[in-house]
Design a protein that fits this description.
This protein is an all-alpha fold. It has 2 domains: 12-69; 82-116. The protein is built from 5 helices and no strands. α3 runs antiparallel to α4 (98-105).
Length: 124
């Protein structure tokens, strides 16, 4: 897969040759590199190599981060543990008001409603 920032298959030297311009042809001559001279081509290649190196480092770090995160559950941890969930269900079926259940477990009413609502069946 080739991104738009990668060098063409024929190589950097031919590509630089096709880009040859001089400072007087450039719209912003203060920031241009004169690729018609050997020194200008050298500077261009050094910058291109540094950019490629940096891109490869970013790719490696991204892959390492994804590998390290594989198998982990992301997001905010739930406040209601499975034990507290069972306790809340038992208290509600016994007729305890939601407000009192929430206070007893140290969570909000909305958390109780959200965590105890029926979950949809998989695939629906």
């Amino acid at each position: 897969m080739e991104s738009r920032h990668e060098l063409p298959p024929q190589g950097a030297s031919r590509w630089v040759s096709s880009l040859s311009w001089s400072p007087d042809q450039s719209p912003n001559s203060a920031k241009s590199i004169d690729t018609t001279t050997p020194g200008g081509r050298l500077v261009f290649h050094v910058f291109a190599s540094l950019a490629e190196f940096e891109r490869d480092l970013i790719r490696e770090r991204t892959q390492a981060g994804l590998a390290a995160a594989r198998g982990r559950q992301g997001g905010r941890p739930t406040v209601l543990s499975p034990v507290k969930r069972k306790q809340a269900t038992r208290m509600i079926t016994e007729g305890t008001p939601i407000v009192e259940v929430a206070q007893a477990l140290g969570v909000s009413r909305s958390t109780l409603y959200r965590q105890l609502r029926p979950m949809p069946a998989p695939g629906t």
